[in-house]
Design goal:
Blueprint lengths: L1 H4 L15 H7 L10 E5 L2 H6 L1 H13 L3 E5 L6 H5 L3 H20 L4 E3 L2 H14 L2 H13 E3 H5 L12 E4 L3 H5 L3 H8 L6 E4 L18 H10 L1 H6 L6 E3 L3 H11 L6 H7 L3
Parallel strand pairs: 1-2, 1-3, 3-4, 5-6, 5-7
Helix pairs in contact: 4-15, 6-7, 6-8, 7-8
């Protein structure tokens, strides 16, 4: 991979799951509750192929709260193309996703997004990339989309006590949209838990940046500034929560600590 793709040999690519979230949904059809309010869950590439357990956890939380959940997968949001400067291709991809999500947004339903980098595309990049009627639709979709943590933080969730200390590492896109407080608020609902915002800046992975051979040392140095130091100082029973996929992979690979998504932690503590 280093010779052909420029991926540093010290890196390990995330493992594909044999059963995707879409596969799990097909094997576990949902039961419609008459009169239940419908919310839409955006099944992004990371959740579908790498972390289907996050999708399952989000479903459990929403259904426990009495919602009917429609899960949609209109394709990749376009973030990888945007991050590489391939704006022409990204515009085509974004237009396709917006077209698929617009009927939901136009109907007034919230669209819940798990991955902060995907949400930033739908809320910020899509309206900026598109023009005319496409832009109008993108703006409607942007208004309907929200981070899962934002929505869940407002729910009446019966939770039992969990870890005494929860360390939180916010994703850069999440922080740029001012959405870290939503995650902190959600986790603060856990009885007897002390929630600590690590305020560690970027984890150093930054999408594909940290995978490249020429950036590996820089990526590692950024992670070691605060994030890995905090991870190494964790005590038995402490939990590290990170909403971003790349952040969780970075701390696992460089620090040997398994960070989890907030929805996974919350779902485990549902009474």
């Amino acid at each position: 991979m280093e010779k052909s793709l420029g991926i540093d040999r010290r890196r390990t690519l995330p493992a594909w799951k044999r059963e995707t979230f879409a596969d799990w949904l097909a094997r576990n059809p949902r039961t419609n509750v008459p009169g239940a309010t419908t919310v839409t869950l955006f099944n992004d590439t990371f959740v579908n192929h790498y972390d289907p357990e996050i999708g399952v956890a989000m479903l459990a939380i929403l259904e426990r709260s009495g919602f009917r959940v429609d899960v949609v997968r209109p394709g990749c949001c376009g973030r990888p193309l945007i991050s590489q400067g391939l704006l022409g291709e990204a515009r085509t991809q974004v237009r396709s996703v917006v077209e698929a999500l617009f009927p939901i947004a136009d109907g007034g339903g919230p669209i819940l997004v798990c991955e902060p980098s995907c949400l930033s595309v739908l809320k910020d990049d899509a309206p900026a990339l598109l023009r005319g009627e496409d832009r109008r639709k993108a703006q409607a979709v942007a208004s309907a989309c929200m981070l899962f943590d934002e929505f869940a933080a407002k729910l009446d969730l019966p939770l039992r006590a969990g870890p005494k200390k929860i360390l939180v590492h916010g994703h850069c896109h999440q922080k740029s949209m001012g959405l870290l407080p939503a995650t902190l608020s959600l986790l603060s609902r856990i009885p007897s838990a002390t929630v600590v915002d690590l305020d560690a800046g970027c984890c150093g992975m930054a999408g594909s940046f940290g995978y490249s051979k020429e950036h590996y040392e820089v990526s590692e140095a950024i992670a070691n500034r605060r994030l890995l130091t905090a991870a190494a100082a964790m005590q038995a029973g402490d939990v590290l929560v990170a909403p971003g996929t790349s952040c969780r992979h970075q701390v696992a690979e460089l620090g040997g600590v398994a960070a989890i998504h907030p929805a996974v932690l919350i779902s485990r503590l549902l009474q």
